[in-house]
Amino acid sequence: MTSVQFSTWLHDWDKELEARKKPNILLFVDNCAAHLKVDHLNHIKIIYFPPKTNSELQPLDRGVKTVFRQGYRRRAVQLYLQEMAASKKPKVTVLDAIHFVHASWRDIKPATIENCFKKAGFFGGSQSGSQATQVESEMGWETLVGEGSVPELDMFLDVDNNLVTSEITSHESLVEDNLSHAEEEDEDEPAPRSAPKSAEVVDALKLIRHFFTCIPNVEDDVFDKISYLENSIFQKSLNLKKRKRNS
């Protein structure tokens, strides 16, 4: 995060709130280098935490980030186990990481966020915020330990606690960084895959349904979600055909 990105994000959000006629926002932020004062906001009021109080007043630091990190790293462990089971070299691509981030954030329950706000003292009530359980991560971690030299689970989950994620960056250095990155080629990243055909995706879902059919005591909502995906693919295919006919 840079100060330019922070300012751009806030102004874009402010315009969105105005366009959608949403209520005004009271935004609490910490005093990291990128969080400079942003002017000309009509629907967002910023309140900065006092210095050196993040560990007590920042809801993200009171549990939300822990839950998110565990969800992300649980998925990384699952991918490593799947790759090793298929005799492949384990690897997390940038696209994998994006999917992990999306799914891990969606997994955070509203009650978890509410409890973390309580622990930070934002409103009255019980101060006992929920802590992230590590059971799911540990289920696969012991298998990885047996496969080679890996750190303890707690060290793995907290490896980036002190990682610096923000800085004050000038416009000139931003342009220079973007130009240099554009010239670099990441040889480790696989070539982009072409989009599969609808029929191929439907066949894959049939295989997934068969897989769960062979397992006892599977929850009904698993099959509901598969049916939802099948219906979504069917509707997308119909809409695509209609657009082609009309074009």
Your description of this structure?
This protein has 247 residues and is mostly helical. The chain is built from 10 helices and 2 strands, in the order H-E-E-H-H-H-H-H-H-H-H-H. It has a two-stranded parallel ribbon. The model is unreliable at 128-137 (pLDDT under 50).
Please give a handful of descriptors for the protein shown:
10 helices; two-stranded parallel sheet; 2 strands; mainly alpha
Secondary-structure map with pairings?
Blueprint (H helix, E strand, L loop, with lengths): L2 H17 L5 E5 L14 E5 L5 H4 L6 H22 L8 H14 L2 H10 L15 H13 L5 H5 L13 H13 L14 H16 L6 H27 L1
Parallel strand pairs: 1-2
Helix pairs in contact: 3-4, 3-6, 9-10
Q: Which range best describes the helical content: under 10%, 10-25%, 25-40%, 40-55%, 55-70% or over 70%?
A: 55-70%
- Strand neighbour order, sheet with most strands: 1-2
Number of helices: 10
Structural class: mainly alpha
Sheet bearing the most strands, described? 2 strands, parallel
What do the pLDDT scores average to?
A: 78
Order of helices and strands: HEEHHHHHHHHH
Extended strand count: 2
Radius of gyration computed on alpha carbons = 23 Å
Brief rundown of the structure:
With 247 residues, the chain is mainly α. It is built from ten helices and two strands, in the order αββααααααααα.
